[in-house]
Amino acid sequence: MPITIIVGAQWGDEGKGRVTDLLAAEADIVARYSGGDNAGHTVTVGSEIFKLHLVPSGIVQPGTVGVMGAGMVINPKKLLAEIDGLAERGLDVSPDRLKLSAAAHLILPSHLALDGASEEALGAGAIGTTRRGIGPAYTDRAARAGVRGGDMLADDFAQRVYQAVEAKNRVLVEIYGREPLDAEGIADEYEGYARRLRPYVADVSREVHQVLRAGGRVLAEGAQGTLLDVSHGTYPFVTSSSPIAGGVLTGLGVGPKEVDRVIGVTKAFQTRVGEGPMPTELTGSVGQALRGTGANLWDEYGTTTGRPRRCGWLDLVLLRYAVRINGLTDLVITKLDVLTGLDPLRVCVAYRYQGQEWDDLPFGPNALAESEPVYAELAGWTKDITGAREEADLPPAARGYLDLIEERAGVPIFFASVGPEREQAVHLAP
Length: 430
Ligand code: GDP
Ligand code: IMO
Ligand code: MG
Hints:
- Helices cover about 30% and strands about 20% of the residues.
- By secondary structure, it is α/β, with parallel strands linked by helices.
- The chain has two domains: about 5-90 and about 205-425, Adenylosuccinate Synthetase, subunit A, domain 3 (Adenylosuccinate Synthetase, Chain A, domain 3); about 105-200, Adenylosuccinate Synthetase, subunit A, domain 2 (Orthogonal Bundle).
- The strands form five sheets. Strands 9-7-5-2-10-1-11-15-19-20 form a ten-stranded mixed beta sheet, sandwiched between helices. Strands 14, 16, 17 and 18 form a four-stranded mixed beta sheet that branches. Strands 3-4 form a two-stranded antiparallel ribbon.
- A hairpin with a 2-residue loop joins strand 3 (about 40-45) and strand 4.
- The radius of gyration is 21 Å and the shape is globular.
- The structure holds guanosine-5'-diphosphate, 6-O-phosphoryl inosine monophosphate and magnesium ion (MG).
């Protein structure tokens, strides 16, 4: 059985955790392949709400094994806190059910310090990172100076941590004028984390291959989103990893022939957290209506940092781009219910850039920042759709909205989500 990929089609927070949880009912392995605890994935099952950052969302479904692949960066302190929190809530997160790739990189306190120092030094030009040390950890990976999950198995692990922190102390002191970190104390602390995490360290690529060869199903759970990809996203306002479908291959250690389905998750509108261009951003009352007040679980405030998310109309130019970059085979539309009561609705169907109209991403140094959205206007609906389960339960205007997305994206919608709960999904006829 092949791999199904779930990938964010926007700037993150599309509802990947919620979609992963639903599809994980049929999966043997659920695998995170990129990012770290910059991700915040929410799963709602009845009165239970799980906010996952490193452990794959599929762990909530009892029949799965969760794996954290080579493409990830892991803060061991955060991972242990997450494991303990899930265990307290009765989930089996023993090493039989949760595996960490030996090739995943470890985030050290020096990465967190550098993330903060670099953002502060950038001032108005800051990226708006989650300050979880993500960029500096991937920088060390590329520089071949990182400490990896597998290093926790080595006798001299503490020494490796000590040396890595000391190397960054020079940068912190000499470049950023900061106080040096206590490398010895950190090495001791990390030795303690390693003692607990060692049993989780595994050859994740082999685990995935064994399940595939035995006819099992693997679900690859994307973090972040297509537009945050370090190469194909809105650079430099991106993360430092490859959250796109291509990242699954390197992030898990599998070949392209293993993948047969790539599901892009998109909200029914656009959001972004952090800096960078966003052509359909709405700063007035409609943007506020999309964001919500924070009273609901799903209102647009970051799961990881609590920052208010920037909101705007759905951008189909960017969605088509995500279809292309990931080779999407189908789409899941989330938060359709949030549009209830907004009338009229607008959808960006093209950009105006340098006097021309573009239905694909324009090419140029500041193309996205200089693009003006061209909108199609659609009728809204007022009927509460949170109880809809079949296409016929949706008002005609909601179906019209989905039809337009499907037509412009050029791939079918698998289901539309109308609430955060597992069963709040409207499966659409193929
Ligand atoms: P992720 O990072 O892609 O997993 O998404 P987040 O969990 O950060 O943010 C999505 C938020 O929307 C969470 O609070 C979900 O519970 C919520 N959510 C997901 N799908 C729906 C939906 O269809 N309707 C509503 N109202 N909320 C949803
Ligand atoms: P999930 O998986 C939304 C954004 C940050 C910032 C940029 C770089 O929950 O969808 P980083 O800390 O990665 O160096 O920050 O990327 N970002 C996210 N935005 N959802 C996420 O994850 C994100 N992970 C990173 O806000 O703009
Ligand atoms: Mg999130």
